[in-house]
Specification:
By secondary structure, the chain is an alpha/beta fold. 33% of the residues lie in helices and 27% in strands. A hairpin with a 6-residue loop joins strand 1 and strand 2. It starts with a strand and ends with a strand. The relative contact order is 0.21. The structure holds adenosine-5'-triphosphate and magnesium ion. Adenosine-5'-triphosphate binds next to strand 2 and helix 1. The site of magnesium ion has 3 residues, from helix 1.
Length: 221
């Protein structure tokens, strides 16, 4: 079963001579429960594509369907509801709140949505990501790897339909990056979580079930 279907997606920036075809007719289906890596040169359109899947940006043409929901024509308010309910995001720079503890950071999106966490799942996910003994620490007291493991727990806690990660190991040294990605892969496998990850690291991309290459806004598999 496909959790994401993308039809003829186009996104152009600018006009005339300086126009950039960031996405130039993307067709892609992403299977539920699988780990897909997206690779490609800088400027090839990877982040633009991920942002369209996550409802952060809207295309000029084409359609994105996530978990049976078409994002076509959605207003910003509807997109915000879609993002909160369906998507987990992990970024290169962690995006943690420095004044909140690890535990508070992980639970922050749920508390914004007015939901209460499942304590069993919270314990499992923090054990799995080796955070259980750091729950009262602040992000500034953690290593880069610890910060990213916190961000991953935060993205997973709401059991999103799809987890989107834009170069999640980009700020980590290669050994830490490998460890963090190993734990990310273990968590998504344990919970049959769909993961789409952008990376520049071909070695890390090989850990995925499928590698999709994007060149000049088009898919080359
Ligand atoms: N908001 C924007 N305004 C203008 N141009 C943009 C904007 N966002 C992206 N672009 C352009 O679209 C193209 C694709 O950008 P994108 O960020 O998707 O690339 P990327 O593959 O993620 O690159 P990187 O590996 O460097 O992160 C680039 O030429 C970029 O300059
Ligand atoms: Mg990018």
């Amino acid at each position: 079963m496909d959790i994401v279907t993308i039809h003829n997606l186009k996104k152009y920036f600018g006009k005339g001579e300086s126009q950039v075809k960031a996405l130039d007719g993307i067709n892609l289906a992403i299977e539920k429960g699988k780990f897909t890596a997206i690779i490609g040169a800088s400027g090839s359109g990877k982040t633009t594509l991920l942002n369209m899947i996550g409802g952060i940006d809207t295309p000029d043409e084409g359609e994105v369907i996530v978990d049976g929901i078409s994002l076509r024509g959605m207003k910003e308010k509807e997109l915000a509801v879609f993002r909160r309910g369906k998507v987990g995001f992990v970024y290169q720079n962690f995006n943690l709140v420095p004044t909140l503890t690890v535990k508070e950071n992980i639970l922050f999106p749920l508390s914004l949505a007015g939901s209460t966490p499942d304590p069993v799942f919270f314990n499992e996910i923090t054990e799995l990501l080796h955070l259980a003994d750091r729950l009262n620490a602040y992000p500034g007291e953690l290593s880069g790897g610890g910060r990213q493991r916190t961000a991953i727990a935060r993205a997973l806690i709401s059991k999103p339909s799809i987890l989107l990660a834009d170069e999640p190991t980009g700020s980590l040294d290669s050994k830490t990056g490998q460890n963090v990605l190993g734990l990310l892969k273990l968590s998504v496998e344990t919970y049959h979580q769909t993961l789409v990850m952008i990376t520049h690291n071909l070695e890390l991309a090989q850990m995925a079930d499928r590698v999709v290459r994007i060149e000049d806004g088009r898919i080359h598999e």
